[in-house]
Design goal:
Layout: H1 2-6, H2 20-24, H3 32-63, H4 65-68, H5 78-81, H6 86-107, H7 109-127, H8 135-154, H9 161-186, H10 190-193, H11 202-225, H12 227-232, H13 241-257, H14 263-269, H15 271-288, H16 290-293, H17 297-302
Length: 303
């Protein structure tokens, strides 16, 4: 159980971005064999990213074990508390990284290179880049973009530039939200836990949240109304905008209050936010696969 905890299975939810291409690339339609292969490939890609991200979490916990001991919640992590030795943790990190890379190359050579790039980028982040204000959040966002790009590669669909940009903007918003939540929870001790927090202020982060939330919404609207999206996927994703706005604004409100330790905790415990996300996913599936589901959106919208 201790070794499972340092792999942070609750954070595997971040890897759901791998499934974006499966839905928006319409890989859930076709023959039973085609759908089964696409779904199996996406699940395999998800598993590879879970292993790769767990390797990075363990590596980061080893590097940050001293700082984590000053954090009210992270001090209870197995490595910081001493429940798991550094040597054992490092061995598990190597096993996870090797498993993720090997599995990725079995699925697709391009996807394997994405996984390797992700691991190298996150190692640099853990060692150096997380100490650079603003750049720390940019690197995290790029990591999520690699998940989306990798998901497209593994299910063999084209990658929409707008979808990548939208993912980047949304994740940049989430990353700044995490920083704001950390400051709200840690107060004067925030810089002791994370050096870059000393450069952020609640006012600056509030401004960054406003800018990035607006950017994420605009990018989504541009993706939804793009000619390529209309031709390949659908032109009706625009109708999910109210749900997108609700989720973005609720997330912003909760992290600025410091109610949750971070995005993962918010996603796992805030029921209204969960309902909004699930509703958006279901609406997207219904819209993208309307013809297969026998839904005539023209008649629905006319009423």
């Amino acid at each position: 159980m201790r070794f499972l905890r340092i792999m942070r299975p609750s954070h595997w939810t971040k890897n759901v971005f791998v499934f974006a291409a499966l839905v928006f690339g319409q890989r859930l339609s076709g023959t039973a064999e085609e759908v089964l292969v696409a779904v199996a490939s996406a699940i395999g890609g998800f598993a590879c990213f879970c292993l790769a991200s767990s390797a990075i979490y363990i590596f980061n916990d080893i590097i940050d074990r001293e700082a984590d001991r000053s954090h009210p919640e992270k001090s209870r992590r197995p490595i910081a508390s001493g429940a798991v030795g550094v040597g054992s943790a490092a061995a598990l990190a190597i096993i996870c990284a090797a498993g993720g890379i090997a599995g990725a190359f079995v699925l697709d050579g391009g996807f394997g290179r994405v996984i390797v790039g992700y691991i190298l980028l996150m190692v640099l982040y853990s060692l150096f880049l997380k100490r650079a204000m603003i750049l720390d959040c940019v690197i995290i966002s790029i990591g999520f973009c690699l998940r989306a790009v990798g998901g497209a590669m593994v299910v063999k669909v084209g990658i929409s530039p707008w979808l990548v940009i939208c993912t980047f903007a949304l994740c940049l918003f989430v990353a700044f939200g995490k920083r704001r939540s950390e400051i709200a929870q840690l107060g004067e001790n925030s810089e002791q836990f994370r050096k870059t927090l000393g450069g952020y202020t609640p006012e600056l982060l509030a401004h960054m949240l406003d800018v990035t939330s607006g950017l994420a919404i605009v990018c989504f609207l541009l993706y939804a109304t793009d000619e390529r999206t209309a031709a390949i996927v659908t032109d009706k994703l625009i109708y999910t905008t109210p749900v997108v706005l609700y989720c973005v604004f609720r997330f912003s409100a909760l992290v600025q209050k410091g109610k949750y330790a971070g995005p993962v905790e918010l996603t796992l415990h805030d029921v209204p936010f969960q309902i909004g996300v699930v509703l958006w996913v279901l609406l997207c599936i219904a819209i993208v696969y309307a013809e297969k589901l026998g839904i005539d959106w023209g008649s629905v919208l006319a009423h």
